[in-house]
Amino acid sequence: MILSYRVEDGVRLGTLLWEFGPGHRAISSALLGGGIGPVGWVVNAQVAAGYSRMDPAEHLRSLAPAGRGVGMMTAAYVSRYVRARDGGVEAVATVGLRVPTWAAASPGSADAELRPIRVGTINVVATLPVALSDAALVNAVMTVTEAKTQALVETGFQGTGTASDAVCVVVPSAGEEEPFCGPRSTWGARLARAVHQAVRRGAEDWREVAARVDYEPLARPIEPTP
């Protein structure tokens, strides 16, 4: 994983890039390259608060290598990423929690602000060293989501995530496929622990930084500390 920076409209923005090369596939909910299929790279790009471009997929393509990959965006500072490992599984989370939301809100409930790229996002990229069946990949996304939600509840945030969270799970495309990735399977348990640790640390960091700056929740992203 490489962290780099670019300048757009006078704003310095970070980008995280994973390059896997051939022999990998992923499941993702991301804007670019979502679904299940081969993957050579993953990009997690920071964008400015109030992002309003109408071609986000093309924007992400311009920031990525050639070939097939997965691209996601966030208004959170990706330089504040958190990495956690457990038994060969790695999870990297970028955590923005300006407007945490409950998944099952009552019909007609009003949220404070739901312009997704503006309000911050929890993006999780996880890698496993073993192949997974299609069903296990779907199970892996469930496990990531459950572990993320557990971390938010434990840190006191009132929500199951944000309205624009994205996830990507990358595995080898060759080898014997594991049939399960739920939280009580061998690899699912490792995935859950890694994601939980990364998101919890990211949520704690978000709260700590927000408490010590002149913080207007919907006005701007939190600046990275030196």
Description:
With 226 residues, the chain is an alpha+beta fold. It has one domain: L-amino peptidase D-ALA esterase/amidase. It has four helices and ten strands; from the N terminus they run βββββαβββαβαβα. A six-stranded mixed sheet has the order 4-3-10-9-8-7. A hairpin with a 2-residue loop joins strand 1 and strand 2. It starts with a strand and ends in a 15-residue tail after the last helix.
Structure keywords:
single chain; disordered C terminus; 226 residues; 26% helix; L-amino peptidase D-ALA esterase/amidase; alpha+beta; 10 strands; 4-stranded mixed beta sheet
Instruction: Give the fraction of residues assigned to helices.
Output: 25-40%
What is the N-to-C order of secondary-structure elements (H for helix, E for strand)?
EEEEEHEEEHEHEH
CATH class: Alpha Beta
**Do you know the CATH topology?**
L-amino peptidase D-ALA esterase/amidase
Strand order of the largest sheet: 4-3-10-9-8-7
Rounded radius of gyration (Å): 17 Å
Count of beta strands: 10
Structural class category = alpha+beta
In what range is the share of β-strand residues?
25-35%
- Summed up, the domain count is 1
Any idea what the shape is? globular
Q: Give the low-confidence spans.
A: 214-226
CATH hierarchy: architecture: 4-Layer Sandwich
Tally the helices: 4
Name the average pLDDT.
Answer: 89
Distance between the termini: 21 Å
